[in-house]
Structure formats: structure tokens, C-alpha cells
Design brief:
CATH topology: Jelly Rolls
Largest sheet: 6 strands, antiparallel
Structural class: alpha+beta
Mean pLDDT: 96
Number of helices: 7
CATH superfamily: q2cbj1_9rhob like domain
Helix content: 10-25%
Distance between the termini: 27 Å
Number of strands: 12
Order of helices and strands: EEEHEHHHHEEEEHHEEEE
Shape: globular
CATH class: Mainly Beta
Length: 293
């Protein structure tokens, strides 16, 4: 699919230079913690190319897709690593679908990427102290035609420190047409959002919902901002703060490839933590890993 035509939440994106652009690569300052913090303050995100071991990231991809093949979600007529959707699932036939999903999210190869090694080393460097990663892991297996609406993360996990950061990790090479994440440029500085939408706690106002909008082009126009994205490779990460508006492009893979990524959250271990997301069985929004995905 050509980047002359992209959609998000089934809305056609304005790809003009005024409304769409490229994420800034911060790999050149990866070794300078002060510069990274200054860039985060300025832009609300950090794109770091090749920070993770590519082989470990791809091993995690294979682990996840092998588990999904067990329940028929990955088409085994193709190599499992390709992650081609079968279009159906036997997951609901399991005795405990939530327990199955929890086991996938706690796979050792996946956790080696998210909770050890270069990932934890980077966050210790960036945060300036011992990091803590939420035990709950948001694993995204996105089929063709699906995406994520526009939102701040603070509305979902705002009960601990506000110095909490999301890291979006692609497990494989993901082009825009496969449904990459987008950042709304300097959205962490929009007072209207900070004073209203950012004050929501979705578990205290459940009827409100967490997404700010399902119309990304309208959001860009309203706040006179660009949506920023890029093509990702396995080993890249995108880090952003709790008040950075983001969403994703619709997966339009011509071969029905599932887009595989994870969202993990990091903070200083010494600071208050949102207890919904920690422990061996995180409460999450009330149903742990059993909640509908």
C-alpha cells in the first residue's frame, strides 16, 4: 500500500506536510541522559533505532506467534514467524482464555526483551536511577482493518508517579501500511487537553471511556498539529510520556499480516506506583488479563 493513502480509525489521513511528518531519530544522543531528558521535555517522545538486540526481539515474535498458532489465530500454511492471520480463533474454546493470554504475555523470550537487558539498561540511564517496569504487559496483536484511537496514557494509569513512560516496541519490521504508532506533535503541551481530558481516570468515570477521539484527522486539524510516524525495524523503540497524544494507523497489510507490538511502562522504583498494574496477578481495570482485548 502506498503512503499516499493511509487511514487511522478508518478515517483518511491528511498526508500533507502541514498535517503529517516523520518522527525524529534520537539515536545520536542515546548515550547522553541529560540530552534525552531535554528532548523528551521538548518533543514528548524519543525514537531510538536499534537499541534492542534484533535477534532477541525476533525470538519474542516467534514465541508469541507460536502460541497464537496453538489456538488457530496464525495461519500455519505459512511460516509462523510471518504472523499471517487465519481470520479465526479457538481461544474462546479454552477453559480460561484469560489465563492463556497471561501466559503469552509472560513468555520468557518476550519478558527478556521488556524486563531485562538493553531495555532496562536504557531506562536506568534515562531515568537516572533504578527503574521499575509494570508487571502487566500490553501485547498488541492487530489484524488488518484495526487500529487504536487517540489518547493520553495518563487516563489509564495516573494513580502513581507522573514520571512514568510508555515504551512501544515493534516485534518485526513494521511499515506504515502495517499500522505503525503515531504521535501528535507536541501534544504534551496542549493546555486544553492537560486541563480537561488528562484529568480523567477511566476506572472512576467508566462511561466516559479512555479514548479522546476516533477521528485522528480532526484532532490534527483542531490543534493545528502534525501526526508523526515512521517505518520501524525490529530493535527500535519509541518512548513517550503520559501526556503525549498517540494513536495508530490502520493495519492494511496486503498479505493479512498481524501487527505485533507491546506497550510497557517504566518509572523510578523509588516513586509511587499505580497498583493496578503490578504483582503476579495485576488487577488492571478489574479483570486482569481476562479483559476483552
Amino acid at each position: 500500500m502506498s503512503t499516499t493513502s493511509l487511514t487511522s480509525c478508518k478515517q483518511t489521513l491528511d498526508l500533507s506536510p502541514k498535517r503529517f511528518g516523520e518522527l525524529k531519530d534520537n539515536s545520536g544522543i542515546a548515550g547522553d541522559a541529560d540530552a534525552l531528558r531535554a528532548r523528551m521535555e521538548e518533543d514528548g517522545y524519543l525514537l531510538l533505532r536499534g537499541l534492542l538486540n534484533r535477534d532477541e526481539v525476533l525470538a519474542a515474535r516467534g514465541e508469541v506467534f507460536s502460541r497464537l498458532a496453538e489456538v488457530g489465530e496464525v495461519d500455519t500454511r505459512y511460516p509462523v514467524m510471518e504472523g499471517i492471520s487465519s481470520g479465526h480463533s479457538r481461544r474462546k474454546e479454552l477453559d480460561d482464555p484469560g489465563l492463556f493470554w497471561k501466559s503469552v504475555c509472560e513468555g520468557p523470550k518476550l519478558r527478556r526483551v521488556t524486563h531485562a537487558g538493553a531495555m532496562m539498561g536504557f531506562h536506568k540511564h534515562f531515568l537516572g536511577g533504578q527503574p521499575r517496569c509494570f508487571d502487566y504487559l500490553w501485547l498488541r496483536v492487530v489484524p488488518v482493518g484495526h487500529s487504536t484511537g487517540c489518547h493520553y496514557d495518563v487516563v489509564y494509569m495516573g494513580r502513581g508517579t507522573r514520571r512514568l513512560y510508555t515504551t512501544w516496541t515493534p516485534y518485526g519490521d513494521i511499515s506504515r501500511a502495517d499500522g505503525t504508532l503515531m504521535i501528535l506533535e507536541k501534544s504534551h503541551q496542549i493546555e486544553e487537553l492537560l486541563n480537561d481530558y488528562a484529568q480523567i481516570d477511566v476506572d472512576k468515570t467508566p462511561n466516559r471511556g479512555g479514548w479522546f477521539s476516533t477521528h485522528p484527522p480532526e484532532v490534527a486539524e483542531r490543534f493545528d498539529r502534525r501526526w508523526l510516524t515512521t517505518d520501524f525495524r525490529a530493535g527500535d523503540i519509541l518512548v513517550f510520556g503520559m501526556h503525549t497524544m498517540h494513536c495508530s494507523i490502520d493495519n492494511a497489510s496486503p498479505v493479512q499480516r498481524l501487527r505485533l507490538s507491546s506497550d510497557t511502562r517504566y518509572q523510578l522504583a523509588s516513586e509511587p506506583v499505580d497498583e493496578r498494574w503490578i504483582g503476579p496477578n495485576p488487577l488492571a481495570h478489574g479483570r486482569g488479563y481476562g479483559e476483552k482485548r
